[in-house]
Amino acid sequence: MSAAIPKEALAANFAKCVRGYHLLNDDPIKETPWEDINAIVLAASGCPVVAASHGSHKPGSDLTSSLGGFSNKSTQYGKGSFSISSYRLTTVCSDKDPGSPAAILAEIGRRKDFDYYSIIVRSQTKGSSEISYDWYLVPSDHPAVNPAAYTWKPKIGVRGRNKGAVVGWETDVRAGSSMSITFSMSSQLWMDVAVTEELKTFIVGSCKVSGGRKYTYIHLAEREEA
After folding, report:
1. Whole-angstrom Cα Rg for the chain
2. Which of 74, 135, 75, 142 has the alpha carbon at shortest distance from 114?
3. CA distance linking residue 6 with residue 204, whole number of Å
4. Which residues, 6+ apart, have CB-to-CB distance to 80 below 8 Å?
5. CA–CA gap between residue 208 and residue 226 (Å, rounded)
6. What secondary structure letter does DSSP report for 174?
7. Residue 222 CB neighbours (<10 A)
8. What pTM was computed for the model?
9. What is the pLDDT of residues 28-44, one digit of tens each?
10. How far is the first Cα of the chain from the last one, in angstroms, to the nearest whole number?
11. In the prediction, which pLDDT does 51 show?
12. Residues near 72 by Cβ (< 8 Å), separated by ≥ 6?
């Protein structure tokens, strides 16, 4: 983490980019557009992007800027929390070989090459076109998102052919947050992150928009030609 976070500029440019996106798009902001938006916001705020994954699903950093490496995530709010997925860990734990917490944590440590989780979280009331977004920049070593901060134990199947078998790994709950790995879900690491008052301090921007595109690509082309 090599530079101070210019929160005021990031917040203003985040709101502009979100509004701009929804002038052309009906869909909520999810993973691929979020990487592009994040890069635009950083560059406009004086934090030039020097590397980007361009939508690649490879693990690790998606963007690298003067603020450090970012792992971009998009999700939506649940009841007092949100969930994000991270590493696929089939090389160190699966239904064929459950592995061990030590091996899992070592593999995560080997792959980790970013400084922040850059997370856009949305909420939308059923039946409403209004969407609210929060942008979190959470340090990757913060206890809520750090697998090494938890105590891990085997997840045991409770029904069917997996009853009594190890079907994954799960953690204790710390400050409302927890993690899990399920072998049948590609041994992917999932984080359930509680939205505590402390976590809210990592919000760098918020925006509320009314869904429904206002322009099409044709409109933009015609405006350019005018």
Report:
1. 19
2. 142
3. 9
4. 176, 194, 195
5. 31
6. B
7. 11
8. 0.91
9. 999 889 999 999 999 99
10. 45
11. 75
12. 31, 34, 35, 38, 62, 63, 118, 119
Q: Which two tokens stand for residue 119?
A: 């997370």
Query: Residue 60's pLDDT is what?
Result: 58
Handedness of CA 185, 64, 117, 39 (dihedral sign): negative
For the chain, which ranges sit under pLDDT 50?
A: 1
The token pair at 112 is 């980790």
Q: Which helix or strand (DSSP H or E) is residue 103 part of?
A: helix 101-111
The Cα–Cα gap between 124 and 207 comes to 12
| Spatial separation of the C-alpha atoms in residues 42 and 49, rounded to whole Å | 7
* Contact indicator for 167, 184 with CB cutoff of 8 Å: yes
The residue to which tokens 């030590």 are assigned: 102
Amino acid identity, position 212? G
Q: Where in the chain are the domains?
A: 7-225
Report which of 47, 48, 67 is spatially closest to residue 2, judged by C-alpha positions. 67
pLDDT in tens, 118-152: 999 999 888 788 999 999 999 999 999 999 999 99
38 closest CA partner among 7, 77, 73: 73
Beta-carbon count within 10 A of 50 CB: 9
